[in-house]
Amino acid sequence: MLDEPFVNPDPAQGEAEPVLAPLVAPDTGPAREWAEASPPLVTVHPDELPEGDSHLSVTRTFCFADLCGFTGYTRAHGPHEAVAMLGEFRRITRSVAAKRGVRVAKWLGDGAMLVSTSAAAALSLGAHLIHHFASRGVQIRVGAATGEALLFEGDDYVGEPVNLAAKLCAAAPPGEMYTVTDALDMPDWVTCIGDVTVQIRGVGPISGVHRLLPLGLAAEHGGDVSRLSSDIDALTNELDQLSSELGSELNQLSSELDELGTAGNEPMSDG
What we know:
- By secondary structure, the protein is of the alpha+beta class.
- Helices cover 43% and strands 27% of the residues.
């Protein structure tokens, strides 16, 4: 259980922000996983240790988050504002990931790769980032996938779910999360607004991809969809009317051409 937060005063920053008391927990990182995966080999003599490379297979949920339109934001607001926005993205991502038990595996320019043993924690983090930055007028897109991957050199992951999560992030519309998980375990403040099939280069179509949004944004999204549907219906009616009018004009023009052709084919009378 967390202790009561204490305040870290910083007069230069104005109002102080609460700081959570540190948690102390046993190591659950890659080193312990390697040791538990091969206990008979931990203390053997060097001559008895098998040759060849070893790879540890683990099941994880991989999550990629990306700031949308960062290049355009830089062009519109300048490099200083862009760096400030990137700094906030990393600060919020790092803080929320720590609170939700998700690890920031690496920073990817204006994005991040995150790893979790819990699909629910990873999905909560992705939705949290979308929710937080939507209030700032900035859109985040997220891709997440659960599966088995190889732990490589202690801190990197290689496998299909890693690549799939990255490609789902690239395919997701701004402000949405695309995810493929065996069991869709979501918090009650996140909703699935439907499933889609995503065409992944080099892989092919991936069906059953869940589209996730925080509830508040989902309601706004639904309103946007309704307005878009109404706009499409209005445009369809206008096109039908224009098509009907154009058809009438073409028929009239065709009749006039027929009359001209008939008149041109009549024999000329002798003078």
